[in-house]
Specification:
- The protein is α/β, with parallel strands linked by helices.
- It has 2 domains: 2-91, ACT domain (Alpha-Beta Plaits), CATH 3.30.70.260; 131-287, Rossmann fold (3-Layer(aba) Sandwich).
- Helices cover 32% and strands 31% of the residues.
- It has helices at 13-26, 54-70, 85-91, 137-147, 165-172, 185-197, 228-241, 258-267, and strands at residues 2-11, 32-35, 43-50, 79-84, 99-101, 105-109, 121-125, 156-159, 178-182, 204-208, 219-225, 242-254, 271-278, 281-287.
- Helix 6 links the parallel strand 9 and strand 10 (204-208).
- The longest helix is centred in the first third of the chain and has 17 residues, at 54-70.
Length: 293
Amino acid sequence: MDFIEISVKNIDGEAAETIGELFNRYGHGGAVIDSYPPDFERLTIRTVIPGDDKLLLQQIEAMLALIGRALPNGLPEPQFQLIGESDWAESWKEHFHVVRIGQRLVIKPSWRDYQPTANDIVLELDPGMAFGSGLHPTTKLCLEILEQMPLSGQSLFDVGTGSGILTIAAAKLGASPIRAVDVDDVAVRVARENFVINKIDSRIETATGSANDNGGQKWQVIVANILAHTLVELMPDLAAALAPDGKLILSGIIAEQEASVITAIESHQLNIVERRIIDDWVALVGSAGRMSE
């Protein structure tokens, strides 16, 4: 099948979140957000739709025009390109290189060569059409938090797993058992393939679903790297799935919408115990236990 790639380049976090919601709803495989050095504050967001769906293309064009009029700084002109399915998959590869996150985590695209040092924890990844390459600040924030948590033997629930990168990191940092879910079938397939590449597939439960698909248990760590308004909507299910004294890691939050997420967290008797920020993006850690001194 041929696809039409739709991309909007050189935008800020507020615009990316708004367009991301649109692309996640109507795009094939959802939205993919890229940021490239040296200016990680400027983003490119893209998706694909079936090449023969002219009505959907017209609807997305109209909605992008409305978004552009609503945003204070408008939007750059969207770009449209007809590509084959294999071309879509291959086009991402030129942008992904080996990236170090924190002290020990190294993200290695499956097609790149890398000689690890003794302390490296290598996350081998083929992002495919799923969000989560490790380059975007929201993913980086989650990885930094996970690296510094005592995860050995801790159960973990990854809601909105995308490419599976956070599950892979958690598993290699010692978390077990782990359940990874996503509402998008494409993301679930890509995540499973990445679990196989990293030889952790036998340790991970995967399913198409959301925060209410918790496997019938309480989890010591829950991580959700989604958009702010979705986190607010999912908060009852996230809080219900959290074990006593558990930790809830939330990312994908643009700074302007942080207050709404904090309100949702605190309304479920959770305390904010950690806050991290990169550019306009915020990650929060909520705790079901007592607030840290």
